[in-house]
Amino acid sequence: MPFDDILGQTTAKRILQNSLRTDTLGHAYLFSGPAGSGQMKTALTLAQAIFCKTLKDDACGECLECRKVQHGNHPDLKMISPEGSSIKIDQIRELQRVFSYRAEGGNPKVYIIDQADKMTVQAANSLLKFLEEPPVPAVAVLIADNSQSLLPTIQSRTQRVPFAPLPPEMMLQALSDEGVPAPLARCAVSLASGLEGCKELLEQNWFAEMRNLVLQLAKESLGKNGSAVTTAGQRLFKTGLGEHLDALFSMFHLWFKDMLYFLYRKHDSIVFIDQLDLISNYARTRTSSEWVAYMEFAAESKKKLRFNVNAQLCLEQFLIRLES
After folding, report:
1. Would you write out the chain's pLDDT as a tens digit for each of its 324 residues?
2. C-alpha of 166 from chain center
3. Which of 30, 61, 111, 222 sits 20 to 30 Å CA-CA off 144?
4. What is the C-alpha separation between 264 and 256, in angstroms, rounded?
5. So where are the chain's domains?
6. Would you say the pTM of this structure is higher than 0.85?
7. Which residues of 131-147 are buried (b: 16+ CB within 10 A; e: fewer)?
8. Which fold has domain 3-162?
């Protein structure tokens, strides 16, 4: 795909295209920024542009070389990602073995290391010399959400290319263009860190179901009719939804924040915009400080899950507090 098809990231695209145009391509780049901001898509577009037989500073997307990258079978492109929880030294050794052979097309070889911040110390040390002096002409792209956790020596040997979070309006428009209903899109954009993350979330069968359940539990708990705990037991822990309690607490956090947005007349910021009538009924039943306290309780409940507190107990305590 051409660079123009990548949303936002004007600075990153300008750096890379200028390098291609002026034949000053670096030997190693560090794509740093929040997950889901388009780093992998940009890395693959850069690889296409390097191999492309039609354009100098972009990918035509149509020549044989571009299509090989698209189909994941270009012989001069090597992709590395964590095996389990980390990138291991054997993966870097295999990269070095593959790169001991010359490129087939006369262009530099390209390797992309996704989640490079998950390299073991041994893997990172093994990469160091190879990064600076590959046996054949090569371009490295390291992708890292947390670039500061990389070895300082690796950071110093790479050219940093910054990626910024995409503006929510841009992501909402892109999702709308793909036919995603606005209520689901607004929720996904508020929970995921980038467009790809939004799409992954929206593809999960449980996501829309969880959103509906949060709305039902919110009505029942804030209405103080005492049925929320029973509903949660039936709908969550007897189905697969119970595996996604962190998302439930995140959605509740957004729901409470919507109450504040309504009180402060910031309707454009409301996530559950399709529930505006309901929000208008509930928003004034609590003070601003009470809604903030609910938001904090949702965040605390999510934190408890990470410390392996019993999930059902955690949710029941949360709902009972809302009903009190």
Report:
1. 788 888 888 899 999 999 999 999 988 999 988 877 889 999 999 999 999 989 989 999 899 999 999 899 898 999 999 998 899 999 999 998 888 877 676 788 999 999 999 999 999 998 988 887 877 788 999 999 878 888 899 898 999 999 988 888 889 999 999 999 999 999 999 998 788 889 989 999 899 999 998 998 888 877 666 666 677 666 776 677 778 889 999 999 999 999 999 999 999 999 999 999 999 999 998 999 999 999 999 999 999 888 887 888 888 888 888 776
2. 11
3. 61
4. 13
5. 3-162, 204-323
6. no
7. beebeeebbbbbbbbeb
8. Rossmann fold (3.40.50)
